[in-house]
UniProtKB/TrEMBL annotation:
InterPro entries: E3_ubiquitin-ligase_CHFR, FHA_dom, SMAD_FHA_dom_sf, Znf_RING, Znf_RING/FYVE/PHD. This is Fha domain containing protein. SUPFAM superfamilies: RING/U-box, SMAD/FHA domain. Pfam families: FHA, zf-RING_2. PANTHER family: E3 UBIQUITIN-PROTEIN LIGASE CHFR, UBIQUITIN LIGASE PROTEIN CHFR. The keyword Coiled coil applies. Residues 305-315 have a biased composition (Basic and acidic residues). The lineage of its organism: Eukaryota, Sar, Alveolata, Ciliophora, Intramacronucleata. Residues 294-304 have a biased composition (Low complexity).
Length: 383
């Protein structure tokens, strides 16, 4: 039989006072005070190393342990582990050294139970009271909070990434825009005609040097020279530049201030000889020469016909006139007028004034036929 120890009041040896009281052991006997439980691993025994020391010789040095833990689902579990020689009782039954029982709110724990060597008065028993359920209150909340925090951080990280991405995209776009602008301005230089220094209209490229000009501008140039205005290389062929014309059209739609007036466009188009996709310059010039020659021939024929008619008229007039040319009258002076009008048409700029009666005699002294022949033949000889 073990001796009774008079000092049975439990001594709280819990070191960390800041720990929250999460459970209580309400004493069932007056001589033992209630015990507050703060630790998750709560030791009870006779020895001084326990969190609660009860100095009764019948208790083991380490009598029992109350463990608070969480199961897989985060639910709080409290277990009572029997570490005693004489036994710890849970709801009236012995647990046995090394065994554990799950403790629920309101369960009975007896360290000394009435029996062999233990009177009813000697019993040391408690009612276990849970003050805080970590699984239902704080624990899941903190879990939720942690989850929320995690979610929030993820969201923030995501937003950061998105912001960075949009920044990068904006930078990329700005760079692309700059690149396009540069390309357009470079292109714009290439769109300029080296003859009129304006954006090309009906652009053609010269072969083989590949320089480009307005079709109208180069046609005009070709009347004087047969080489490239830029590099002076002999031009063999002229090609319509459909691609550059298409680009120029789009470019002018974006920059309408660079468009030419309708009048200018009409003028350029009237000059443009390059209506076909490819034009051989030698053939073109040959064709032009032929056309010129034919025109000239037709002109000369017309002139000859006019001359013949005039000469015929004059000879008829002379036959009717006084053969000595001494008769002077107003009628004969008026007959000379049609001849002088014809002369005006042939390039005599200042009109010859109608002869007065005083001037008629000296004119009459030179035969009219000779005078007319000299003046009519002179322009034809120059050609
Ligand atoms: Zn031009
Ligand atoms: Zn060239």
């Amino acid at each position: 039989m073990a001796d009774k120890n008079n000092n049975q009041s439990p001594q709280n040896c819990q070191s960390n006072e800041e720990d929250e009281v999460w459970a209580k052991m309400n004493s069932l006997t007056k001589k033992i005070k209630n015990v507050e439980i703060r630790h998750t691993h709560f030791t009870i025994g006779r020895a001084s190393g326990n969190l609660i020391q009860i100095k009764d010789i019948r208790l083991s040095g380490r009598h029992c342990i109350i463990n608070r833990m969480l199961d897989e689902n985060g639910k709080m579990i409290v277990c009572l582990e029997d570490a005693s020689t004489n036994g710890t009782y849970h709801n009236g039954s012995l647990i046995g050294k090394g065994s554990t029982r799950e403790l629920k709110n309101g369960d009975e724990i007896f360290l000394l139970k009435e029996g062999e060597g233990v009177s009813t008065e000697d019993e040391i028993g408690f009612i276990f009271v849970v003050l805080k359920d970590f699984s239902k209150a704080e624990q899941p909340n903190s879990q939720d909070k942690a989850n929320d925090q995690e979610k929030l951080e993820k969201e923030i990280e995501k937003s950061r990434l998105e912001i960075n991405q949009s920044k990068e995209e904006l930078e990329k776009k700005a760079q692309e825009e700059q690149k396009i602008r540069k390309q357009i301005s470079q292109m714009a230089d290439q769109f300029d005609c080296g003859i009129c220094y304006m954006t090309m209209h009906q652009a053609v490229s010269l072969m083989p040097c590949l320089h480009t000009f307005c079709g109208g501008c180069f046609s005009d140039w070709l009347n004087r020279q047969k080489d490239c205005p830029s590099c002076r290389e002999n031009v063999v062929e002229v090609k319509k530049h459909s691609l550059i014309n298409c680009l120029i059209e789009n470019y002018l739609n974006i920059n309408p201030q660079l468009k030419r007036s309708e009048e200018e466009i009409k003028h350029l188009e009237s000059l443009n000889m390059f209506k076909n996709d490819i034009v051989n310059i030698d053939k073109l010039l040959e064709e032009q020469q032929k056309q010129k020659n034919a025109k000239l021939q037709a002109q000369q024929q017309q002139e000859q016909q006019n001359k013949d008619i005039k000469m015929k008229d004059e000879s008829e007039n002379n036959d009717q006139e006084d053969p000595d040319g001494l008769i002077s009258s107003e009628d004969s002076a008026e007959e000379e007028l049609p001849q002088k009008r014809v002369m005006n048409k042939r390039g005599v700029k200042t009109p010859i004034p109608k002869p007065t009666k005083k001037q008629q005699k000296p004119i009459r002294k030179i035969p009219v036929t000779i005078q007319n022949k000299k003046k009519a033949v002179a322009p034809a000889k120059k050609r």
